[in-house]
Design brief:
Structural class: mainly alpha
Strand content: under 5%
GO molecular function: glutamate-5-semialdehyde dehydrogenase activity
Protein name: Gamma-glutamyl-phosphate reductase
Number of helices: 4
Keywords: Oxidoreductase
Distance between the termini: 25 Å
Order of helices and strands: HHHH
Largest sheet: none
Radius of gyration: 17 Å
């Protein structure tokens, strides 16, 4: 799975390199909009991740890095 994601990311990087600055900015704006739209579910999932990590004994320093 990670290998496939890496291959897809590399292919996307080649396509991204061909975009103009304006096109890249529009893509980034769409990504930002989607992150904002999904903020509640992202934060909820993060809380669950932190709770699970705490239950598994992750250090406070690592928990701080994990928490959004």
């Amino acid at each position: 799975m990670l290998e496939q994601m890496g291959i897809a990311a590399k292919a996307a990087s080649y396509k991204l390199a061909l975009l103009s600055s304006g096109e890249k900015n529009r893509v980034l704006e769409k990504i930002a909009d989607e992150l904002e739209a999904q903020m509640e579910s992202i934060l909820s999932a993060n809380v669950q991740d932190v709770e699970q990590a705490r239950a598994n004994g992750l250090s406070e320093a690592m928990l701080d890095r994990l928490a959004l």
